Each structure stands twice: as structure tokens, then as C-alpha cells.
Amino acid sequence: MRKLGICLMMVLLGTANFVLAQDQPSNDDFSKWQFRLRGIVVTPDESADIEAIGGDASISTAFVPEFDISYFFDENWSVELILATAKHDVEAVETAAGDIDLGSVWLLPPTLTGQYHFTGGDFVPYLGAGVNFTLFYGVDEGPVADDVDYDSSLGFALQGGLDYMLNDKWFLNIDVKRLFLSTDVTVDATSALGATVGADVDIDPWIIGFGVGVKL
Fold first, then answer.
1. Which N-terminal residues, if any, form the signal peptide (predicted)?
2. How remote is the C-alpha of 209 from its chain's centroid?
């Protein structure tokens, strides 16, 4: 999935450069608001530094809907607020105590990106960068731990995408994002291991989405 995300980002960047090279005149009559609904695949590119027992983290892929709102300052520049939430199964693997099922957790990572859109035809590529703030909630600690606590996280985001205009109002969309997301995790495993274990976990998900949008 990571290789697929990198390939898609490269294709989108190449398309953007091609469209920009066409030197098409801009249109001053543009829609200021844009809304998209996507189905997304959230694939963590996880790694972890686990105290005392060592090992690594394994975090499941999730398939969820995503909604975003964009505001355009002009035909090319916009800001986009991305809203989605996903549930992931979590496991500590290859530790000194073996593989440990840590249940599941919900992630809510609202992400704000600034974007540049390469206009001039029905194909409208864009590139973006911004920040995300991730909240963790709905923790199910699993059968081993007494409690699992995840710290909220502030991180960066990169984005590339392509809109294909069906008409002046409706369009199809493909979008690739990479969130640079990490959290400090505290696992209370007193009952099973007689200790509380801390871990620095990098989640760094790739998010690949397909959907439909409308300009207003």
C-alpha cells in the first residue's frame, strides 16, 4: 500500500506539471465553496519503540467514509478541512512477552491543508500541505491490558489529488494523503505482566480516497 501511495503521488504530480505547462488562461468566475464525499483506505505505516519488553506495533487498515469542505480564495488557491474517523485494531508484536492483543482504538484526525489547483481543463490536479490534530477515543484495551492510554497528537500532512469535472458543478475525485502522526502510549498491564509499559508509536498513515464532489 505504501508503494501504491507513492506511485499515485508521483502520477498526480506529473499530471499537475503537464497541466501547468499548457498555460491556459484563468477564469475569474470561480466557485468559492467545494464539498467532497470520499471512500478512503487508511493504511498505517507504523513503527514503535516499546519500553522494557521491546517489540513493535501492528495497526490494522481501515475503510471509512471521509467528508471535506474547501474554500477558494481565487481559482487556484484554497484551504480544505478534512473530516473522518476510523477504528483500528492494535497489537504489540515480537515483544519479550510475545504478541500482545491491545484491542482497538478510534482515531479522529481533523486535517487542514492549503492547496494549489492547476486549472485549465476538465482534469484539475492539486497539491496540498497542512496540519492535523488527532484525538484518540473509544479505547478497547483487549484481553491483556488493564488500561491503554493514547496521547493526542499534532502533526503534518501532505496531499495530492485530481478532480475530473463532469460539468461545471459536479466532479469525480482521487486523493492521496500522508499524515505524519505519532503518539505516546501507556499500557497498564499490571494484572498480566506486573508492570506499566510506555511506548512511542509512529502511525504515519497513507490515506487513499475516491469520491464525488460539488462546487457551490
1. 1-21
2. 10
* DSSP string of the chain, one letter each residue: -HHHHHHHHHHHHHHHHHHHHT-PPP-S---SEEEEEEEEEEE---EEEETTT--EEEE--EEEEEEEEEEESSSSEEEEEEE--EEEEEEEEEETTEEEEEEEEEEE--EEEEEEE--SSSEEEEEEEEEEEEEEEEEE-TTT-SEEEE--EEEEEEEEEEEEESSSSEEEEEEEEEEE-EEEEEEEEHHHHSEEEEEEEE---EEEEEEEEEE-
**Positive or negative torsion for Cα 88, 161, 8, 48:** negative
Average pLDDT for residues 181-190, to the nearest whole number?
95
Alpha-carbon distance 125 to 17, whole Å?
9
Per-domain residue ranges for the chain? 2-22+34-215
pLDDT at 177 over 90: yes
What is the distance between the alpha carbons of residues 51 and 180, in angstroms, rounded to a whole number? Answer: 22
Task: Tell me the pTM.
Answer: 0.84
Query: Would you say residue 123 has pLDDT above 60?
Result: yes
